[in-house]
Specification:
7-stranded mixed beta sheet, alpha+beta, 17 strands, globular, about 40% helix
Length: about 350
Amino acid sequence: MKIRIATPEDKPAWDTYVDNHPNAAPYSLFAWKNAVEEAYGHESCYLLAEDAGTIKGVLPLFHFRIPLRECNLVSLPFCDVGDILADNTESRMALTKEAVSLAQKMKVKYLEIRSGSKNLFFRDDGHGWDVRVNTGKVRMLLDLPDTSEELWKGFKSKLRSQIRKAEKNGLTFSWGHTGTLDAFYDVFSRNMHALGSPVHSKKWFAKILEHYGTNARMGLVHCEDQPVGCGIILFTRHTVSIPWASTLREYNRMAPNMMLYWNFLNYAANYGRKFFDFGRSTPNLGTYRFKKQWGAIAEPLYWYQVTHKKCLTCEEIASQVKRQKIATLWAKIPLGMANVIGPSLRKYISL
């Protein structure tokens, strides 16, 4: 078994491996690597396990540098799950060992792997490093039938009426493209500002659309000529994920989110995808309940931190109370100013 760092020439083989792996999320494709590097400048370190020239496993990592703070290795930043994808236990353990060794060589504060696997690491690797795992979030996954017609018939009548409500209110859905990125960003940035969160740069989304190509689609919901809802889906051969979706609060009574998600689900089912990944949620909160109504099932996320024993975990460093206070203050900053300053901060927030 040989572990090496992937090069640009490995992109076709890497993507083929990811595309055919049943547990892979679209974030593990090489397109994520290119988008992060070109939009935000973080250095990648994509590990590839080979046996006799055949790929047996992959682990995408980023050297996540934060000014005036120690660096981290993350798989993957800006999404819910990176993970180790491997054919067998031997390949997985070889990639795990190499990642820990790389973290030691780089002298990073911690190695973080956002996984869907319960037993990715032993609690102590025996080299003065400690393994901690955060299990506070779940990923909401929906098994898709063969057609959207079957999917529609499986919905409860209340859900179907909520979807129809958007149509009755005169909302319309259309597929977007790079030429409609401004409309997407107008809705997305306004929603992030209202939530008190620094917004991703417009360049980030442009790079996502550029590098994912046919593995990405943008959707827009309009009320007459006003864009009121937006989202982007990414996909592999098996799975469709929705990392970004937003609606304007003043139009939420018209149910633009229902129209947006239904059209994405409709597309996913009709194009032969097996799973729809609604993304990360906290059990029993609002977004969790919204996703559950579609029939999504909660699957635990395991976010591992491999760190020096003397280090503090993320939960110990930043309390929820402090984050909420910052969000409240950020929402009070004028939107124009937030959209200028926000992307410069967002590139250093790995969540």
